[in-house]
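ok so i was messing around last nite and threw this chain in just to see what happens. nothing serious, just curious
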Amino acid sequence: MSTPVDPTTLIPGEKLTDHDYDGIREYDNPMPRWWVWTFWATFYFACFYVLFFHVRKDRSEVAAYNREMQAYYEQQTEELLKMGQIDEVLLATLYQTPSAMKEGADIFNKNCVSCHEPNGGGKIGPNLTDDHWLHGNTLMQLYATVRDGVNGKGMPQWSKKLRPDEVLKVAAFVGSLRGKNVDGGKAPEGKPLPIPPLPDTRKATKDAAPASK
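result:
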């Protein structure tokens, strides 16, 4: 059995810290150097990680997922265009994809606001936010109008100026303007039409999801 150590007896060669707590003093035993270096390594790594993935734009997992989905939709669009299989489900899938809608909004702001206003309320072109439509209001009808244009009405054939996937995305974005009825919008033109429900896109989304890594 070991001999009890008297706590008041100092260990030879050991240093004490300067502070005193109610007569209790501590030995000055610094952390091992390897532990200190490991601590600082993890600290600087954490700083780098936060700056790289959370401060810089487009570095998060969500952004990476959106980029993968965007690349998939562009590839899918090219393949579907070759087979002629553009349908309401594909357009609805883009409609429900934030990255595709953001790009569609950017395309709209660059090319369409001179005729339709930034809010879609209409200027030279018709109001895109009310319930009256000249050429139909399904996503496929909107896509056909954007793609083919309208002869004699100043609506260009955007398929000659935009990439195929851009035509799809801007058509899907126009679909998102339906029913907003913005203030100060142009007077209604065409026939009143209810907003058609979106088709079920769950299977398309499931098939489109990139494999986990």
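not much to say yet. The two ends are 58 Å apart (CA to CA).
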